[in-house]
Amino acid sequence: MFDGPLSASAYEVLGVATTADEDQLRRAYRLRLRETHPDTGGDAALFVRVQQAWELIGTPEDRASYDRGREVVSWGAPRASAARAGTRPRTRSYGQAGGWRRMRYRRMLTDHLGRSATDGEAYDPAVVRSAPWEVRRMLADALAEEATAAAIDDLGIGFTAWHGVACGQDAVLDHVVLGPAGLYGLVSEDFGDSVRFRQGEAIGSTVGGSTPVADLVARVRSISRTARVRFAGAVLILPDEDLDEPAVVLGSVRGLPVVVVRRSALRPLLRGGIPGARPLGVTEAFDVRTRLVQSARVIMT
What we know:
Number of domains: 2
Structural class: alpha/beta
Oligomer: single chain
Largest sheet: 7 strands, mixed
CATH class of the largest domain: Alpha Beta
Shape: globular
Helix content: 40-55%
Strand content: 15-25%
CATH topology of the largest domain: Trna Endonuclease, Chain: A, domain 1
Order of helices and strands: HHHHEHHHHEEEEEHEEEHH
CATH architecture of the largest domain: 3-Layer(aba) Sandwich
Distance between the termini: 31 Å
């Protein structure tokens, strides 16, 4: 919370400037508590966020620590990961997670600024937060992809992953993961707020008119046809704070089982599979992997 491109800062949640003195800060906190308290018709989720914001900047010591953290936050492109300690092999992966979204973010930021930005400027929190919501959303989704890829990397030797897979004109599927529990298509999203579901589709104040579940299913089906492989299901991954429970089973959408999960619940799901999904035998898994290696085109390597 309070640390992503789409997140409101603790100051914004309390409705004060970063230069507010202690008395202004305390008055703003008390006012926001009254405005958001559920007993007076306020929003319970926002009421909790107001309290969390106060915990971050309510004392001079906490506020100084929070301000220092805001100065050093980094959303720059991740460096190549160093070899991990230990002998446990990692997931075999193809492609660069988040790469195509970072490219689009830089183009969108250039259009917004009217000029190219240096790497340092492009990922400076002040520059990012001043950009339009659509620009910040693109960076937030790139970060979400990278966080999901980090979780997938730890699945181990029995898994293979493809990141940023082309699936038709101007369409990309964030992740394809093959393991003993089956083949899954995944999309990582960050809407910057809680998400609910109605009739098999995501809804919420920041979802707008987009259809992330329908788009996910369409992309999975496209790859299924091209590679002639069968997917066990599709998974929409959200930040933990944006989903009220670890997993939401949406059921079958156009014949494909769909589950929405918190990122922290992703690895157990991929290891165990969606309930009812048919696990793959060794021979079948080898055939699926071969077909994908031959036909899956990753956008960036």
